[in-house]
Amino acid sequence: MTEYFVTRVPRPEWLDSHNDNSGLERALGGQPEWFWSIPGVFRALASPRTGEAVPVLPREIRDVRDSLSYWTSLQYLLLYRLGWTRPDRGLRWWYDEEKPVDDPTLKLISKVWDRDGQLDHYLGWLLEGRPRFDISNAVSWADVMDEGEKLREPLSDEWEQWKRSHGAREREEHPFAGGTDPFHLTGHTGQTIWADSSATIAVVSLEERRAVLLADNMAGWYLELGKLGAGLPDIGASSWYVDVFVKTVGYLGTYRKSRETGLWFSGRHRLHVAGNDGKFSAGNH
Fold this sequence. Notes:
By secondary structure, the protein is of the alpha/beta class. It contains 11 helices and 7 strands.
């Protein structure tokens, strides 16, 4: 698989002087402080050898302003590329499999966040609340498990030990240890504002089961993929392959719909299923 060559960039200064936040939010898919780096990570996936811009690890990881988009872009890939409603489950699976990089999304995550030594911090935070992200509906907040739910879905002994061993260090060193959601990642999931009603989908080849979705901006593209994808011609037990393009960003990937979860994803189905808990099905959407 092709090696990624990326350019690591800090939080841009223009964020402090931008006067058209509503237009920028539509283009990025969310508040600029959280979402400014989203276009770069998708461009890196689409063109891995051209040094596309992805966020650099902030010098002071405790500086919330500089760190927001660093974490949001990681989470966005897990939710809207792999189609994971339970990224804690998906990452535990990936760790248990010794972090294979035969998938483009996971390879970029390995190249950036894991190589930075930060992925453990994000997973440690996920294991505290084990949030569920309803990515197929306009829900702005993730559903965090309460203690009773955690008892009904206990971690394995190995993962419970992993969580305890990281917990003490996290509380001293890392901002994810402060409060229940210090970076507001459960409340900034994207796809919930200004849905792009101008998005269109077109069949390219019925024989090859290919279609193209074109959206004006990042706000609501995944929701529109679900809505418009449901109107594609019935091809029985086979799947449509939909190339997704957003005018403000470019190519987001080739997506198909899982018959097991009812969700759209890019990549291998076994990876998609690993990050879900079976509570989302085609009948719910």
